[in-house]
Amino acid sequence: MIVVTGATGNVGGSLVRTLAAAGERVTATSRNITGADVPEGLPHRRADLTDAESLRPLLDGADALFLQNGGPSAHLLNPRRILDVAKAGGVERVVLLSSQGVATRPESASHGGTARAIEDAVRKSGLDWTVLRPGGFHSNMLAWAESVRTHRVVAAPFADVGLPTVDPGDIAELAAVTLRESGHAARTYELTGPELSTLRQRAASIAEALGGPVRFIEQTREEARDQMLRFMPEAVIETTLAILGEPTPAEQRISTDIERVLGRAPRTFAAWARQHVAAFRRG
């Protein structure tokens, strides 16, 4: 059995569906299970990664664990305790969804330090482990959905800085392979899309998928920061703005890990926009 944490997230949700379609026994877990979109008949249980004991009954009899890095609550996790509980339940393999920032922003508490500590715990756990380090997600642009639906407008800073964002569906597909197949133990995979794309270009891809114009308004750094403060911790904002505005060469490097593992190129942002265009349509 495979236990998937963060099963309502962009990666976790896709992973649950991918594993179920492949005929695997899966238990989906998340902090909130109300209204969750999981395949019919699939066990979906509440568990909170900040409370390792809440995972114990779900991991009993499991042989593999997909572990999210905790997101905004990462600093509240006790990863060693989670992994001890996993081992006690019979888990032999763990796949960790980490962050590219562990390597590119080691000085950042939000993107480097906490995530690095979780990675270190996984590597020292005694389990077969694989670490996934994605950059930014295509699906981050869903933050634009309401403004596109209502006003056909996008506002964002650093309009013409390119980053190789990645489709969460590709991350999930690769995670499914590493959870089900041998040959991926003690590997760290850097996951990016196939090309650099700017925020202005992503807005244009959404417009093309919609078949109509979407106006792009370039924000100042300060305007973007004020907007982010409504839903993001300040420490996370500073690193996020630095990545968006002044990416390092490593953050702009296009990885081939998805192609090597899956045998195909990762999906472009334009392809993602066509697949998810309903989120940006009026009514």
Roughly what is the average pLDDT, rounded to an integer? Answer: 95
Count of DSSP E strands?
9
Distance between the termini: 40 Å
Q: Residue ranges: pLDDT <50 for 5 or more in a row?
A: none
Largest β sheet strand count, sense and barrel closure: 7 strands, parallel
Helix and strand composition category: alpha/beta
Overall geometric form: globular
Sequence of secondary-structure elements: EHEEHEHEHHEHEHEHEHHHHH
What portion of residues is helical? 40-55%
Strands in their spatial order, largest beta sheet: 3-2-1-4-5-6-8
Indicate the proportion of strand residues. Answer: 15-25%
Radius of gyration: 19 Å
Work out the helix count.
13
Structure commentary:
The model has no long low-confidence stretch (mean pLDDT 95). This protein has 283 residues and is α/β, with parallel strands linked by helices. The radius of gyration is 19 Å and the shape is globular. The chain is 41% helix and 15% strand. It has a seven-stranded parallel β-sheet with strand order 3-2-1-4-5-6-8, sandwiched between helices. It has a two-stranded parallel sheet with strand order 7-9.
List the SSEs and their pairings.
Layout: E1 2-4, H1 10-21, E2 26-30, E3 44-46, H2 56-59, E4 64-68, H3 79-89, E5 93-97, H4 101-104, H5 109-123, E6 128-134, H6 145-151, E7 153-157, H7 168-180, E8 187-191, H8 199-210, E9 215-219, H9 221-228, H10 234-245, H11 249-252, H12 257-262, H13 269-275
Parallel strand pairs: 1-2, 1-4, 2-3, 4-5, 5-6, 6-8, 7-9
Helix pairs in contact: 1-7, 8-13, 9-10
